[in-house]
Specification:
The protein is α/β, with parallel strands linked by helices. Helices cover about 20% and strands about 40% of the residues.
């Protein structure tokens, strides 16, 4: 076994997430290791590496081919004690797949929940049936890709003893037996068919400490004292009831959610806190399922730490599982000190799983001072999916620091994964009043309807219908309907709102789809395709030696724009118009390409693709809206 394989094995045994993450980031191939008969995920289950599973389980589940190294003897001995007579199923070199390992460990809830997602071997289903029948006296049934496992049946000897006890009890008095039977029926036993019923705060605390059982909330619960975040590996169904936290859950409601939290309202109350560490107000880590959760809060946060970056989410700090059909009603302010990067998001700071059908409610507001802010997620990783999410909140950031780049977005701050079918209806605003006498090309103010900062992933079928406003005293200002800077792909997306960008000293870039469309390197290409723009684009520039550009699709383009159209209007709010350029498709073009685009003729638009020769290549100038509607590029 090589050194790296040995190190990652020891990290699993100790549940050392820091070492594990370091090794995994250094060499991604380590995640596909198989220690003899034991894939890495099976080893994580065997050693109950909870921290590692919370962060990497979804990634490890997807691995179906392995890199084999020597089997660890201590791991084999540990498995031997758990598997007992079922060890014979794995003679020779037969792989102990992750679902089979969970079966041996009797991790029934996790197994049945994740079973449809596991890569399975030829004998996985049959082995699971044998394991449960032999070790746990239970009868699994696989149907339509899902796994169902009946609860234990009493052994005949135990059943006879129970019958005798009941007869004796009845002979003494019938009432206690009847009471016990009724109590079991009333309180439940934790099975899916008969969940444990929760009626009060103490029961809620106890339930969250019991493990992977099933629970239902039978009434609204009010927390009366300080709440320490709990782990939830089972399933809690709120049945539409509400937990009133009254400000007691400021550190978070759940620490690690590896099970399921569904159909629950959580009223966090009023929070006025200094934030000195990363935090998710509903869950620190979600590697399971959060569905139908409605969260409400009013908060005034501040940040005084000066030695580290801070990430705050009103829902989950890190999401590796699924957040589905959840809503957030929030009125939150957050003031940073400008020393380190600080971020606020509605549903997740880091998303490596799936966030779908979630809404930041109308009437909500996220307002920050020197804190970057986004409606759904701060960073959507390359494995992250954000689908069919909507922001109605007013999202705004202001800063008086000349050393801070204010960044505000309706859906995300940065995107490396997929953002699809999302909508922004809230006003998005970034304003910097910091004063600096020197121009710094790395300083800017950004505001966008979907992705505030840069897009390295895919944005598809998204709409901005909220006003976008970016203003700066001493830096460049970028404003756009979809993404401030596009390095990858924006497809079939639409802006239908006004966009305003202003700088008192320097230039601005404003685009209906993106402010700046550019390739990340010489070997990659950024594309805006099949997208459209309505509304007004308004710019205000600064010093006369700095140019300002506005384009129907992009403020500046250094890549490709194709099969897109613009019906935008354009305006300048100050004198010195000779330093401003409006383009029907792009305001400025450098090593840029355009193909099959169209724009509506305006009096102050004299070219399609920037003030250079050949600037109408790849674009059609239309005199009327009807002309554009008649073209194949038009889609509404």
């Amino acid at each position: 076994m090589n050194d790296q394989a040995l190190q990652i094995l020891e990290a699993v045994k100790a549940d050392d997430i820091k070492t594990f993450s370091y090794l995994a980031e250094q060499k991604r191939g380590l995640l596909s290791l198989c220690f003899g008969r034991f894939p890495l995920l099976s080893v994580c289950y065997l050693y109950n590496a909870r921290k590692i599973l919370a962060e990497y389980e979804n990634m490890l589940i997807q691995i179906s081919s392995y890199t084999f190294v020597d089997e660890d003897f201590l791991t084999y001995k540990k498995f031997q004690r758990k598997a007992k007579t079922c060890l014979r199923l794995y003679s020779g070199k037969k792989i102990i797949t992750p679902p089979e390992m969970l079966a041996v460990l009797n991790e029934t809830f996790r197994l049945t929940t994740l079973y449809p997602r596991f890569a399975k071997g030829e004998n996985t289903e049959e082995n699971i049936k044998r394991i449960y029948k032999t070790l746990h006296r239970r009868e699994p049934k696989a149907e339509n890709g899902k796994l169902y496992i009946k609860r234990n049946k009493l052994k005949p000897a135990i059943l006879a003893a129970v019958v005798i006890m009941i007869i004796v009890s009845v002979s003494m008095t019938a009432l206690p037996a009847i009471a016990m039977t009724n109590m079991a029926r009333l309180t439940g036993d934790g099975s899916p068919e008969n969940p444990l019923k929760i009626f009060g705060e103490a029961q809620l605390v106890s339930a969250l400490e019991k493990g992977d059982l099933h629970y239902t909330l039978e009434k609204d619960i009010t927390l009366t004292s300080g709440w320490a975040p709990k782990n939830l590996s089972g399933r809690l169904d709120g049945k539409g009831h509400t937990i009133y936290a009254n400000g007691h859950a400021a550190a978070g409601f759940i620490d690690t959610l590896s099970g399921a939290l569904v159909n629950l309202n959580i009223d966090l109350g009023e929070l006025n806190k200094d934030i000195s560490d990363n935090r998710g107000l509903v869950a620190r880590v979600n590697s399971g399922e959060a569905s139908g959760i409605n969260v409400s809060l009013t908060a005034a946060f501040s940040e005084s730490a000066s030695d580290k970056d801070i990430y705050l989410s009103c829902f989950a700090l890190e999401n590796y599982g699924t957040i589905d059909g959840c809503t957030l009603s929030a009125n939150v302010s957050f003031a940073g000190n400008g020393e380190k990067d600080v971020f606020l998001a509605g549903f997740a700071a880091f998303n490596k799983g799936t966030i779908k059908n979630c809404t930041l409610d109308e009437g909500s507001a996220l307002s920050t001072d020197t804190v970057d802010v986004s409606g759904i997620v701060t960073e959507n990783a390359d494995s992250g999916i954000v689908d069919s999410c909507v922001n109605y909140a007013a999202i705004s950031q202001a800063t008086a620091s000349a050393q801070w780049n204010p960044i505000s977005g309706g859906i995300a701050d940065k995107n490396y994964g997929q953002i699809t079918n999302c909508r922004n209806y809230g006003k998005i605003s970034s304003v910097s009043t910091g004063d600096s006498s020197e121009y710094d090309s790395q300083m800017y103010t950004l505001a966008a309807g979907i992705v505030a900062n840069h897009n390295y992933g895919k944005i598809e079928n998204c709409l901005n219908n909220g006003e976008i406003y970016s203003e700066s005293k001493s830096t460049a200002a970028y404003a756009s309907g979809i993404a401030s800077v596009n390095y990858a792909l924006i497809f079939k997306s639409k802006n239908d709102a006004d966009i305003k960008a202003a700088s008192q000293k320097y230039g601005v870039l404003a685009g209906g789809i993106t402010a700046y469309n550019t390739r990340p390197d010489l070997f990659s290409y950024a594309i805006v395709e099949n997208s459209c723009v309505y509304g007004k684009i308004e710019i205000t520039g600064g010093k006369t030696n700095y140019w300002s550009f506005a384009g129907g699709i992009a403020g500046e383009n250094q890549a490709l724009i194709k099969t897109s159209y613009s019906l935008a209007e354009y305006s300048v709010t100050e004198a010195g118009a000779e330093r401003y350029f409006f383009g029907g498709i792009m305001g400025y073009a450098y090593n840029a390409y355009a193909q099959d685009n169209c724009y509506l003729s305006r009096d102050n638009v004299t070219f399609a693709n920037g003030p250079r020769p050949g600037n109408d290549i790849g674009a059609t100038r239309a005199a009327t809206v009807e002309e554009i509607k008649a073209l194949e590029v038009y889609w509404g």
